[in-house]
Amino acid sequence: MKYLQQLLIITFIAFIGETLNHFIPLPIPGSIYGLVLMFLALDLKIIHIDQVNVTGKFLLEIMPVLFIPPAANFVGSWDAAKAVLVPGTLISCITTVIGMVVVGLVTQAVIRHEDKNKKEAE
Fold this sequence. Notes:
The protein contains six helices and no strands. It has about 120 residues and is mostly helical.
């Protein structure tokens, strides 16, 4: 029964996210709204982590299995995907490197700022 309750909580939050996606005219997927709502509910202690922990871990463990149907669909539409494979791969690689560089620079700036604040406090 605990698993069903946890799954219902997660599903309800996902449903609210999809509903928001329907009513808010922004190009943001409903799953993102659901993730933000779940984060806020957990952060504001509306939902305690114990209320979704076990089912959440289970869903994370089986996540690779959930990618099988989209992968099979991709294989079925290979002719259409061939045309964008090289540009898509190139864009993905470039944006990944840019993201890593930006995250590294921001992290270094935060560390320097914290070190500076510690030295000033001493």
